[in-house]
Amino acid sequence: MGDRDEAVETIQREMAAFARRARAAAARMHPELSLVSYTLLAHLDDRPGSRATDLAAEFLLDKSTVSRQVSGLEQLGFVERRPDPRDHRVQVLHPTPAGAAVLAAATAARREAFRGRFAGWDEADLDRFASYLVSFNEAAADQRAPEDSSAVSAAASPGQGSAPGR
What we know:
There is one protein chain. This protein is mainly alpha-helical. The chain folds into two domains: about 5-120, Arc Repressor Mutant, subunit A (Orthogonal Bundle), CATH 1.10.10; about 120-160. Helices cover about 65% and strands about 10% of the residues. It contains seven helices and two strands. A two-stranded antiparallel sheet has the order 1-2. Helix 2 (about 35-45) crosses helix 5 (about 95-115). The longest helix has 27 residues, at about 5-30. It is globular.
C-alpha cells in the first residue's frame, strides 16, 4: 500500500474511532439526547421554524429517521410543533425552553471536553486542524447529489479558511 493509501486508511480508522467516542460522550452527557438528537436540536435552535423535511435534507437522513428523532425530542419536551404561519397545513419545529436549556448544557459540556483534548495543542496546529476539517466537510458536501446543490450553497459558511493547496 502506498503512502497516500496508508494515510487515507489511517484517517478512516481514526474518524471511525472519533465517531464512536462522540456517540459515547453524547450518551454520557445526556443519556436521553443522542448525537443525532443533539444535532437536530442544535439546528432547530439556530433555525427555529424548520420543517422535518428540512432536517432530513440538511443532514441527509431518511424522513422516517427524522420523524423518530423529532418524536423523541417532543416526548422529552425539548421540541414543539407549530403551524407554519405561511401555510397552516404545514408543521414547523421549535425548541422549547427546556430544549434550549438542555442544548446549552450539552454544548457547554462538549466545548469543555474539546478544550481539554486540545489543551496541549499550539494555536497554529489547532487552526490547521480546524481548516482541514472545514475543507473535508466542504468536499463531502460537494459530493451530494445534484438536486442537493442549492442546499449545500445555502449552508456554506463564507470566510471559513481552507486547507493548503485549495
